[in-house]
Amino acid sequence: MNNSWVLALKQGDKNAHAFLIEKYSPSLMGYVFSLTNDKASAKDILQNVFMKIWEKRERLAINTSLKSYLFKSAYNEFINHYKKESAIIKLEKKYHESLERIAKDSDDEALEKIMSEIFNEIEKLSPKCKEVFLLSRKDGLTNKEIAQYLNISVKTVEAQISKAFKTLRKNLEVKLYMMLFLLKDCKM
After folding, report:
1. Which of 40, 118, 140, 163 is deepest in the core (most CB within 10 A)?
2. CA 97 to chain centre
Protein backbone atom coordinates (compact mmCIF):
# COMPACT_ATOMS: atom_id res chain seq x y z
CA MET A 1 0.00 0.00 0.00
CA ASN A 2 2.78 2.46 0.89
CA ASN A 3 4.48 1.94 -2.46
CA SER A 4 1.29 2.64 -4.41
CA TRP A 5 0.73 5.92 -2.53
CA VAL A 6 4.33 6.97 -3.04
CA LEU A 7 4.12 6.10 -6.75
CA ALA A 8 0.88 8.06 -7.11
CA LEU A 9 2.47 10.98 -5.26
CA LYS A 10 5.53 10.90 -7.54
CA GLN A 11 3.18 11.11 -10.51
CA GLY A 12 1.63 14.29 -9.12
CA ASP A 13 -1.58 12.80 -7.75
CA LYS A 14 -2.99 15.46 -5.42
CA ASN A 15 -5.41 12.92 -3.95
CA ALA A 16 -2.46 10.80 -2.83
CA HIS A 17 -0.93 13.85 -1.17
CA ALA A 18 -4.22 14.72 0.52
CA PHE A 19 -4.58 11.11 1.70
CA LEU A 20 -1.10 11.17 3.26
CA ILE A 21 -1.90 14.41 5.04
CA GLU A 22 -5.23 13.10 6.30
CA LYS A 23 -3.84 9.74 7.38
CA TYR A 24 -0.59 10.83 9.04
CA SER A 25 -1.26 14.39 10.30
CA PRO A 26 -2.79 13.41 13.65
CA SER A 27 0.06 11.13 14.71
CA LEU A 28 2.73 13.46 13.29
CA MET A 29 1.11 16.44 15.01
CA GLY A 30 1.27 14.63 18.35
CA TYR A 31 4.91 13.75 17.77
CA VAL A 32 5.97 17.25 16.67
CA PHE A 33 4.00 18.86 19.50
CA SER A 34 5.86 16.63 21.95
CA LEU A 35 9.09 18.10 20.57
CA THR A 36 8.01 21.76 20.49
CA ASN A 37 5.40 22.08 23.23
CA ASP A 38 3.95 24.78 20.98
CA LYS A 39 0.89 24.11 18.82
CA ALA A 40 1.56 26.92 16.31
CA SER A 41 5.17 25.82 15.78
CA ALA A 42 4.10 22.20 15.47
CA LYS A 43 1.53 23.15 12.81
CA ASP A 44 4.12 25.16 10.88
CA ILE A 45 6.63 22.31 11.02
CA LEU A 46 4.05 19.79 9.89
CA GLN A 47 2.90 22.07 7.08
CA ASN A 48 6.51 22.42 5.92
CA VAL A 49 6.98 18.64 5.95
CA PHE A 50 4.00 18.02 3.69
CA MET A 51 4.84 21.01 1.49
CA LYS A 52 8.41 19.77 0.97
CA ILE A 53 7.16 16.27 0.19
CA TRP A 54 4.90 17.71 -2.48
CA GLU A 55 7.63 19.94 -3.89
CA LYS A 56 10.14 17.06 -4.01
CA ARG A 57 7.61 14.36 -4.93
CA GLU A 58 9.31 13.44 -8.21
CA ARG A 59 12.62 12.78 -6.45
CA LEU A 60 11.27 10.98 -3.39
CA ALA A 61 13.48 8.08 -2.42
CA ILE A 62 11.87 6.27 0.48
CA ASN A 63 13.95 3.32 1.67
CA THR A 64 11.95 2.68 4.84
CA SER A 65 8.25 2.58 5.54
CA LEU A 66 6.33 5.69 4.57
CA LYS A 67 5.44 6.30 8.21
CA SER A 68 9.10 6.14 9.27
CA TYR A 69 10.03 8.48 6.43
CA LEU A 70 7.38 11.01 7.51
CA PHE A 71 8.42 10.90 11.16
CA LYS A 72 12.09 11.33 10.22
CA SER A 73 11.15 14.24 7.94
CA ALA A 74 9.18 15.83 10.78
CA TYR A 75 12.12 15.43 13.15
CA ASN A 76 14.53 16.97 10.62
CA GLU A 77 12.16 19.90 10.06
CA PHE A 78 11.92 20.37 13.84
CA ILE A 79 15.74 20.51 14.05
CA ASN A 80 15.87 23.11 11.26
CA HIS A 81 13.15 25.15 12.96
CA TYR A 82 14.94 24.96 16.32
CA LYS A 83 18.29 26.02 14.82
CA LYS A 84 16.66 28.97 13.07
CA GLU A 85 14.86 30.09 16.24
CA SER A 86 18.05 29.78 18.29
CA ALA A 87 20.03 31.79 15.76
CA ILE A 88 17.41 34.57 15.73
CA ILE A 89 17.38 34.77 19.53
CA LYS A 90 21.18 34.95 19.70
CA LEU A 91 21.28 37.62 16.97
CA GLU A 92 18.65 39.76 18.70
CA LYS A 93 20.53 39.48 22.01
CA LYS A 94 23.77 40.55 20.32
CA TYR A 95 22.05 43.55 18.69
CA HIS A 96 20.42 44.58 21.97
CA GLU A 97 23.80 44.59 23.68
CA SER A 98 25.36 46.62 20.86
CA LEU A 99 22.51 49.08 20.83
CA GLU A 100 22.70 49.65 24.55
CA ARG A 101 26.31 50.72 24.06
CA ILE A 102 25.36 52.99 21.16
CA ALA A 103 22.47 54.50 23.10
CA LYS A 104 24.74 55.29 26.04
CA ASP A 105 27.18 57.04 23.71
CA SER A 106 24.53 59.11 21.92
CA ASP A 107 23.09 62.30 23.30
CA ASP A 108 19.32 62.82 23.39
CA GLU A 109 19.21 65.14 20.38
CA ALA A 110 21.18 62.76 18.17
CA LEU A 111 19.06 59.83 19.34
CA GLU A 112 15.87 61.76 18.59
CA LYS A 113 17.12 62.54 15.07
CA ILE A 114 18.04 58.91 14.45
CA MET A 115 14.69 57.66 15.75
CA SER A 116 12.88 60.17 13.54
CA GLU A 117 14.73 58.86 10.47
CA ILE A 118 13.87 55.29 11.43
CA PHE A 119 10.18 56.09 11.91
CA ASN A 120 10.07 57.80 8.51
CA GLU A 121 11.44 54.67 6.86
CA ILE A 122 9.04 52.43 8.79
CA GLU A 123 6.11 54.50 7.47
CA LYS A 124 7.25 53.66 3.92
CA LEU A 125 6.88 49.89 4.48
CA SER A 126 3.88 48.10 2.95
CA PRO A 127 0.86 48.11 5.29
CA LYS A 128 1.08 44.40 6.22
CA CYS A 129 4.86 44.51 6.64
CA LYS A 130 4.61 47.64 8.79
CA GLU A 131 1.85 46.15 10.95
CA VAL A 132 3.80 42.96 11.65
CA PHE A 133 7.04 44.87 12.26
CA LEU A 134 5.42 47.30 14.72
CA LEU A 135 3.65 44.52 16.59
CA SER A 136 7.06 42.90 17.01
CA ARG A 137 9.21 45.92 17.77
CA LYS A 138 6.81 48.46 19.25
CA ASP A 139 4.45 46.16 21.13
CA GLY A 140 7.04 43.49 21.91
CA LEU A 141 4.88 40.57 20.75
CA THR A 142 6.50 37.27 19.87
CA ASN A 143 6.21 35.86 16.37
CA LYS A 144 3.74 33.29 17.68
CA GLU A 145 1.59 35.97 19.32
CA ILE A 146 1.59 38.07 16.15
CA ALA A 147 0.60 35.04 14.08
CA GLN A 148 -2.29 34.30 16.41
CA TYR A 149 -3.39 37.94 16.56
CA LEU A 150 -3.36 38.41 12.77
CA ASN A 151 -4.50 34.85 12.02
CA ILE A 152 -1.45 34.14 9.84
CA SER A 153 1.32 31.56 10.09
CA VAL A 154 4.50 32.10 12.09
CA LYS A 155 6.41 31.68 8.81
CA THR A 156 4.50 34.63 7.34
CA VAL A 157 5.35 36.72 10.41
CA GLU A 158 9.03 35.78 10.11
CA ALA A 159 8.99 36.60 6.39
CA GLN A 160 7.40 40.02 6.98
CA ILE A 161 9.85 40.93 9.75
CA SER A 162 12.74 39.78 7.60
CA LYS A 163 11.40 41.81 4.67
CA ALA A 164 11.09 44.89 6.91
CA PHE A 165 14.65 44.57 8.18
CA LYS A 166 15.98 44.01 4.66
CA THR A 167 14.18 47.11 3.37
CA LEU A 168 15.20 49.24 6.34
CA ARG A 169 18.78 48.01 6.20
CA LYS A 170 18.92 49.02 2.56
CA ASN A 171 17.49 52.48 3.27
CA LEU A 172 19.28 53.34 6.48
CA GLU A 173 22.91 53.68 7.43
CA VAL A 174 24.40 50.90 9.58
CA LYS A 175 24.15 52.83 12.83
CA LEU A 176 20.51 53.69 12.16
CA TYR A 177 19.73 50.09 11.29
CA MET A 178 21.18 48.90 14.57
CA MET A 179 19.01 51.42 16.41
CA LEU A 180 15.91 49.57 15.19
CA PHE A 181 16.37 47.08 17.96
CA LEU A 182 15.82 49.88 20.47
CA LEU A 183 12.26 50.22 19.22
CA LYS A 184 11.18 47.37 21.45
CA ASP A 185 12.11 49.49 24.47
CA CYS A 186 10.99 52.92 23.21
CA LYS A 187 7.53 54.43 23.23
CA MET A 188 6.29 55.53 19.82
Report:
1. 118
2. 23
